Automatic annotation (TrEMBL):
<dbReference type="InterPro" id="IPR027417">
    <property type="entry name" value="P-loop_NTPase"/>
</dbReference>
<keyword id="KW-0547">Nucleotide-binding</keyword>
<keyword id="KW-0449">Lipoprotein</keyword>
<dbReference type="GO" id="GO:0005525">
    <property type="term" value="F:GTP binding"/>
</dbReference>
<dbReference type="InterPro" id="IPR001806">
    <property type="entry name" value="Small_GTPase"/>
</dbReference>
<dbReference type="InterPro" id="IPR005225">
    <property type="entry name" value="Small_GTP-bd"/>
</dbReference>
<protein>
    <submittedName>
        <fullName>RAB1A</fullName>
    </submittedName>
</protein>
<dbReference type="Pfam" id="PF00071">
    <property type="entry name" value="Ras"/>
</dbReference>
<dbReference type="GO" id="GO:0003924">
    <property type="term" value="F:GTPase activity"/>
</dbReference>
<keyword id="KW-0342">GTP-binding</keyword>
<dbReference type="InterPro" id="IPR050227">
    <property type="entry name" value="Rab"/>
</dbReference>
Length: 207
Protein backbone atom coordinates (compact mmCIF):
# COMPACT_ATOMS: atom_id res chain seq x y z
CA UNK A 1 0.00 0.00 0.00
CA UNK A 2 2.77 2.41 0.91
CA UNK A 3 4.60 1.64 -2.35
CA UNK A 4 1.45 2.38 -4.34
CA UNK A 5 0.99 5.69 -2.53
CA UNK A 6 4.57 6.73 -3.22
CA UNK A 7 4.40 5.53 -6.82
CA UNK A 8 1.27 7.57 -7.48
CA UNK A 9 2.82 10.81 -6.28
CA UNK A 10 6.32 10.36 -7.68
CA UNK A 11 5.19 11.42 -11.13
CA UNK A 12 6.08 15.10 -10.69
CA UNK A 13 8.34 17.39 -8.66
CA UNK A 14 6.53 20.72 -9.03
CA UNK A 15 2.88 21.70 -9.30
CA UNK A 16 1.90 25.00 -10.96
CA UNK A 17 -1.43 26.63 -11.75
CA UNK A 18 -1.50 28.60 -15.02
CA UNK A 19 -4.49 30.50 -16.38
CA UNK A 20 -5.18 32.04 -19.78
CA UNK A 21 -7.19 35.27 -19.83
CA UNK A 22 -8.14 37.82 -22.46
CA UNK A 23 -10.97 38.88 -24.75
CA UNK A 24 -13.24 36.37 -26.41
CA UNK A 25 -11.94 35.27 -29.81
CA UNK A 26 -8.24 35.98 -29.25
CA UNK A 27 -7.38 32.27 -29.37
CA UNK A 28 -6.97 31.16 -25.75
CA UNK A 29 -8.65 27.81 -26.32
CA UNK A 30 -6.73 27.25 -29.56
CA UNK A 31 -3.45 27.92 -27.76
CA UNK A 32 -4.26 25.47 -24.98
CA UNK A 33 -5.38 22.77 -27.42
CA UNK A 34 -2.26 23.31 -29.50
CA UNK A 35 -0.06 22.97 -26.43
CA UNK A 36 -1.80 20.01 -24.81
CA UNK A 37 -3.03 18.08 -27.87
CA UNK A 38 -0.96 19.53 -30.74
CA UNK A 39 -4.09 20.21 -32.77
CA UNK A 40 -5.63 23.35 -34.24
CA UNK A 41 -9.35 23.83 -34.75
CA UNK A 42 -10.35 26.79 -36.89
CA UNK A 43 -13.91 27.21 -35.64
CA UNK A 44 -14.05 26.42 -31.95
CA UNK A 45 -17.10 27.36 -29.92
CA UNK A 46 -16.51 30.06 -27.32
CA UNK A 47 -15.52 28.74 -23.91
CA UNK A 48 -18.36 28.77 -21.40
CA UNK A 49 -16.98 29.49 -17.94
CA UNK A 50 -13.69 27.63 -17.71
CA UNK A 51 -11.97 24.61 -19.22
CA UNK A 52 -9.24 22.63 -17.49
CA UNK A 53 -6.36 20.48 -18.68
CA UNK A 54 -3.22 19.00 -17.15
CA UNK A 55 0.18 18.57 -18.77
CA UNK A 56 3.37 17.24 -17.19
CA UNK A 57 6.68 18.33 -18.69
CA UNK A 58 10.28 17.33 -18.00
CA UNK A 59 13.00 19.90 -17.37
CA UNK A 60 16.33 18.20 -16.83
CA UNK A 61 15.84 15.68 -14.04
CA UNK A 62 12.67 17.37 -12.75
CA UNK A 63 9.04 17.06 -13.76
CA UNK A 64 6.54 19.89 -13.51
CA UNK A 65 2.81 19.26 -13.47
CA UNK A 66 0.91 22.16 -15.04
CA UNK A 67 -2.73 22.79 -14.21
CA UNK A 68 -3.99 24.81 -17.18
CA UNK A 69 -7.16 26.88 -16.93
CA UNK A 70 -8.73 28.31 -20.10
CA UNK A 71 -11.20 31.06 -19.21
CA UNK A 72 -14.14 32.58 -21.06
CA UNK A 73 -13.58 36.09 -22.38
CA UNK A 74 -17.20 37.22 -22.50
CA UNK A 75 -18.28 39.90 -20.06
CA UNK A 76 -21.18 37.84 -18.71
CA UNK A 77 -18.80 35.17 -17.38
CA UNK A 78 -16.33 37.52 -15.66
CA UNK A 79 -17.75 37.16 -12.16
CA UNK A 80 -17.57 33.37 -12.43
CA UNK A 81 -14.21 33.17 -14.16
CA UNK A 82 -12.44 35.59 -11.82
CA UNK A 83 -12.95 33.15 -8.95
CA UNK A 84 -10.46 30.84 -10.65
CA UNK A 85 -7.72 33.49 -10.72
CA UNK A 86 -6.83 33.03 -7.06
CA UNK A 87 -3.66 31.08 -6.40
CA UNK A 88 -2.40 31.21 -9.99
CA UNK A 89 1.37 30.92 -10.30
CA UNK A 90 1.34 32.14 -13.88
CA UNK A 91 -1.02 33.98 -16.20
CA UNK A 92 -0.97 34.29 -19.97
CA UNK A 93 -2.77 37.49 -20.96
CA UNK A 94 -3.68 36.78 -24.58
CA UNK A 95 -4.52 39.32 -27.27
CA UNK A 96 -4.98 39.23 -31.02
CA UNK A 97 -2.10 40.90 -32.91
CA UNK A 98 -4.65 41.93 -35.54
CA UNK A 99 -7.16 43.42 -33.10
CA UNK A 100 -6.28 46.72 -31.40
CA UNK A 101 -9.23 46.51 -29.04
CA UNK A 102 -8.07 43.18 -27.62
CA UNK A 103 -4.69 44.77 -26.89
CA UNK A 104 -6.27 47.82 -25.25
CA UNK A 105 -8.24 45.53 -22.96
CA UNK A 106 -5.25 43.64 -21.53
CA UNK A 107 -4.78 46.36 -18.91
CA UNK A 108 -8.27 45.61 -17.58
CA UNK A 109 -7.60 41.88 -17.60
CA UNK A 110 -4.39 42.35 -15.64
CA UNK A 111 -6.12 44.64 -13.13
CA UNK A 112 -8.81 42.01 -12.63
CA UNK A 113 -6.18 39.32 -12.15
CA UNK A 114 -4.19 41.40 -9.63
CA UNK A 115 -7.29 41.89 -7.50
CA UNK A 116 -6.81 38.24 -6.50
CA UNK A 117 -3.06 37.81 -6.92
CA UNK A 118 0.11 39.88 -6.86
CA UNK A 119 3.04 40.44 -9.20
CA UNK A 120 5.28 39.02 -6.48
CA UNK A 121 3.40 35.71 -6.42
CA UNK A 122 2.68 35.30 -10.15
CA UNK A 123 4.48 35.28 -13.50
CA UNK A 124 2.68 37.56 -15.96
CA UNK A 125 3.19 36.89 -19.69
CA UNK A 126 1.66 38.67 -22.67
CA UNK A 127 0.91 36.47 -25.68
CA UNK A 128 0.28 38.19 -29.01
CA UNK A 129 -1.57 35.50 -30.95
CA UNK A 130 -2.42 35.06 -34.67
CA UNK A 131 1.04 35.91 -35.97
CA UNK A 132 0.18 33.75 -38.99
CA UNK A 133 -1.94 36.67 -40.29
CA UNK A 134 1.09 38.78 -41.16
CA UNK A 135 -0.72 41.20 -43.48
CA UNK A 136 -3.41 41.96 -40.88
CA UNK A 137 -1.17 42.71 -37.90
CA UNK A 138 -1.89 46.15 -36.44
CA UNK A 139 0.02 46.05 -33.13
CA UNK A 140 3.73 46.88 -33.04
CA UNK A 141 6.42 45.52 -30.76
CA UNK A 142 7.06 49.09 -29.60
CA UNK A 143 3.48 49.43 -28.36
CA UNK A 144 3.71 46.23 -26.36
CA UNK A 145 7.15 47.02 -24.95
CA UNK A 146 5.88 50.43 -23.85
CA UNK A 147 2.98 48.74 -22.09
CA UNK A 148 5.39 46.35 -20.38
CA UNK A 149 7.56 49.22 -19.11
CA UNK A 150 4.55 51.11 -17.78
CA UNK A 151 3.17 48.07 -15.96
CA UNK A 152 6.35 46.51 -14.60
CA UNK A 153 6.29 43.47 -16.88
CA UNK A 154 9.56 42.11 -18.21
CA UNK A 155 10.01 42.72 -21.94
CA UNK A 156 10.99 39.08 -22.44
CA UNK A 157 7.61 38.07 -21.05
CA UNK A 158 5.98 39.25 -24.28
CA UNK A 159 5.93 36.45 -26.86
CA UNK A 160 4.39 36.53 -30.34
CA UNK A 161 2.71 33.21 -31.09
CA UNK A 162 0.41 31.45 -33.51
CA UNK A 163 -1.84 28.61 -32.41
CA UNK A 164 -2.50 27.87 -36.09
CA UNK A 165 1.12 27.37 -37.17
CA UNK A 166 2.39 26.36 -33.71
CA UNK A 167 4.76 29.35 -33.63
CA UNK A 168 6.48 29.50 -30.22
CA UNK A 169 3.48 28.04 -28.37
CA UNK A 170 5.43 25.31 -26.59
CA UNK A 171 8.30 27.74 -26.00
CA UNK A 172 5.97 30.16 -24.21
CA UNK A 173 4.81 27.53 -21.74
CA UNK A 174 8.35 26.23 -21.30
CA UNK A 175 9.78 29.69 -20.56
CA UNK A 176 7.00 30.43 -18.09
CA UNK A 177 7.57 27.11 -16.32
CA UNK A 178 11.30 27.75 -16.05
CA UNK A 179 10.60 31.20 -14.63
CA UNK A 180 8.16 29.78 -12.09
CA UNK A 181 10.63 27.14 -10.96
CA UNK A 182 13.30 29.81 -10.60
CA UNK A 183 11.01 32.10 -8.59
CA UNK A 184 8.75 29.74 -6.67
CA UNK A 185 10.40 26.33 -6.93
CA UNK A 186 10.93 25.67 -3.23
CA UNK A 187 7.36 26.73 -2.42
CA UNK A 188 5.79 24.72 -5.22
CA UNK A 189 7.66 21.45 -4.77
CA UNK A 190 5.48 18.35 -4.59
CA UNK A 191 5.09 18.15 -0.80
CA UNK A 192 3.23 14.83 -0.97
CA UNK A 193 6.07 13.25 -2.93
CA UNK A 194 8.65 14.65 -0.53
CA UNK A 195 6.68 13.43 2.49
CA UNK A 196 6.24 9.95 1.05
CA UNK A 197 9.91 9.74 0.14
CA UNK A 198 10.99 10.77 3.64
CA UNK A 199 8.57 8.26 5.13
CA UNK A 200 10.12 5.43 3.13
CA UNK A 201 13.63 6.50 4.10
CA UNK A 202 12.62 6.52 7.77
CA UNK A 203 11.24 3.00 7.45
CA UNK A 204 14.34 1.74 5.75
CA UNK A 205 13.08 2.17 2.21
CA UNK A 206 10.66 -0.76 2.10
CA UNK A 207 7.36 -1.91 3.56
Amino acid sequence: MSFYFTHMHNTYDYLFKIILIGDSGVGKTCLMKRYTENVFCENLAATIGVDFKIKTITLGSKKAKLQLWDTAGQERFKSIVSNYYRGADGVFVVFDMCNKESFKHIELWIEEFLMRNSKESSEIFLLGNKMDKIEDITITDEEVHKFCREHGIKKDNFIKVSAKTDLLVEDAFLIMTKNMISRFGDKKINRVKKSALNSNITRGGCC
